[in-house]
TrEMBL record, chains A, B:
It is an enzyme of class 1 (oxidoreductase). Keywords: Amino-acid biosynthesis, Methionine biosynthesis, NADP, Oxidoreductase, Sodium, Threonine biosynthesis. GO terms for molecular function: homoserine dehydrogenase activity; NADP binding. Residues 124-303 form the Homoserine dehydrogenase catalytic domain. Pathway: Amino-acid biosynthesis; L-threonine biosynthesis; L-threonine from L-aspartate: step 3/5; Amino-acid biosynthesis; L-methionine biosynthesis via de novo pathway; L-homoserine from L-aspartate: step 3/3. SUPFAM superfamilies: Glyceraldehyde-3-phosphate dehydrogenase-like, C-terminal domain, NAD(P)-binding Rossmann-fold domains. This is Homoserine dehydrogenase. Belongs to the homoserine dehydrogenase family. PANTHER family: HOMOSERINE DEHYDROGENASE. Residues 7-116 form the Aspartate/homoserine dehydrogenase NAD-binding domain. The lineage of its organism: Bacteria, Bacillati, Bacillota, Bacilli, Lactobacillales. Pfam families: Homoserine_dh, NAD_binding_3.
Amino acid sequence: MNIAILGFGTVGTGVYEIIKKASRQTTNLSVKKILIRKNKKAELPEMTDSIEEILNDDDIDVVVEVIGGIEPAHQYILDALKHKKHVITANKAVIARHMDEFSSVAAENDVKFYFESSVGGGIPWIQGLERALRIDDVDSITGIFNGTSNFILDQMKKTGRSFSDVLLNAQQLGYAEADPSADIDGLDVANKLCISADIAYDIFVTPNDNLPIFGIRNISEEDIAHFTSKNLTVKLMGKSHQLGNEFDYVVEPTLCKAEAIEANVPDNYNVISLHGNTIGTLKFMGQGAGQFPTANAVIQDILDIYQEKEHLRREFHSNLKFNANLTKSDYVVRSEIDVADIFADYQPETRNDYLMVHDVPVGTMHNLMKDVLKKDELAFMASVPAEGGVL
Amino acid sequence: MNIAILGFGTVGTGVYEIIKKASRQTTNLSVKKILIRKNKKAELPEMTDSIEEILNDDDIDVVVEVIGGIEPAHQYILDALKHKKHVITANKAVIARHMDEFSSVAAENDVKFYFESSVGGGIPWIQGLERALRIDDVDSITGIFNGTSNFILDQMKKTGRSFSDVLLNAQQLGYAEADPSADIDGLDVANKLCISADIAYDIFVTPNDNLPIFGIRNISEEDIAHFTSKNLTVKLMGKSHQLGNEFDYVVEPTLCKAEAIEANVPDNYNVISLHGNTIGTLKFMGQGAGQFPTANAVIQDILDIYQEKEHLRREFHSNLKFNANLTKSDYVVRSEIDVADIFADYQPETRNDYLMVHDVPVGTMHNLMKDVLKKDELAFMASVPAEGGVL
């Protein structure tokens, strides 16, 4: 099976190296072409800067897109599918925005569009979710979907250092990008949660302004110390629930009790959970990023195509409705100014330097926090566990 | 696809009920026959007490064996395979003893022999392990494989009650059997670890007297309280490692630091981990037993057959050698009598009511504990985490 890799960064190199090593069942795979940028020197005989050369090569069966970003990735994926090539991508941003288009163009051209590595890196999450869906309705998806933010929160807790210090350290270690906003502001989690919800609910949702997203940019070392003193650990989590004819979807800092699995996920690991009616709760944990785990997941998709193991067909026929206020939660809010008025309807209580608010519909909470941020741009909030985390 | 279920206990009933509900992709499955015991009243039209009636029914494609025990399950599985029926079983005891025979008879008759539900109940563990093996060598398998013992240890920790009290409670709740020895003495874990090692290393190992197995029968509420005071949690774990041309394998009480994932696995949940060279560490957590999770895993196997998703071929061609002393560990030993002499080679140190011993090869440790048990049949031991659990 002949493969073309578009982009030769961390993940592209990893895919190339694993295939070259030809262990186990990868012996039937061969990298025939690698697309590099215009004007970049071709250091390997497989390299080319011509996408047409790849599209028009009838020997190439599979195109692996690991360029990242929206364009030209979006166009390259469509062109490859239209040239009857299977496409595999790790690019969550482009999938979250265009999964419906990619799925229908793949179906029209009788080729596959797979993306295991886009959510949870090396964790077999998409595969596990699709498998659960063969039997069950999945009525909740929750998890730590972003390794960078988990690394930052874990280091803050372990070292007591400030957010900006730890972020700088993460950037030096290569765990965070120069522009870290996608990771710390929750957009990366939102992309991965959208992709998961697309599959779980058979509906196409894109990250947009209506979705409640709150990141960790404003968290302070004092917040972490206070939560720790109450036996709570804060994690940036993506959460989605389905109930009756509705579903919700939120990305927010979430307090977990010390004994919760999520509270104990270290470093840049991810954990993703699903709940189904007969299977109960399943949790998948592993490296949510990194060269070889992510490349491993790309190659798992290639092997599924080679072994004709079909993934779930996505048709987006569901008529579930998005309701940002489907679930309620208690929250803790920290602000330099008095914001109790804003939360007057939700039994605000001052505790130490924090305001506890109760039973707030999730969408409403995120809207009210936008009002708080207008007055205090450094304000922070986190959801509080239902089973009674005491602050 | 027509199915016969052998045995109509908890899991058999669960399989029947999920298929009857005909959700999602199970609509193509139909239960045609159910084998019940001789002289038992047939309460459903599908029921029969004749195995021959099932074997000779050419319309039956798949036989689900959920009788349990070795015979007649072993014979029924062989007979079904020889009658060209795919066989699915949840019966870890019979698989651990006869996987080589079942695999070769299945291959000879061009049918499948699948057993996802036998290890980890509803956790997609076999499937996840086989998938990892498509690319990686798997060089370690560790986990909490037994829900009953985990429930007991978790309850002892949470309530401070004695082993016998909690065991009685577990039996009343249906979490433990009238004869709990397979669960609390580690034999159930040994079966599941053998099955996992068979797949991971492509070698056939059976639970036998040479395998280091130590259960939790002797643990006291004072042990638990002492470990808790040191921020450690004890779990009954199965562990296997592969290094060079050798592998090991052990079932033993294992101290975990408070922040380890394993330390926080509650109730009757299981967690199973693998480590591979490119994927790193993957952990799978879920309900390791229970009617619907286990039945779900049985039906996943049926759907794999229906959708022609082939599992890994097992040929047992590996020439790895078992070495009980492949790895070393520190241990804590509790005995009413002075046993420091027995461990003279391993830097014995008395700490509170316990003896700490250091860098003991695992097989040697289990042999030495047999000597201890001859003098003090209530003695207890647990391995201590490498990263320095302080007792």
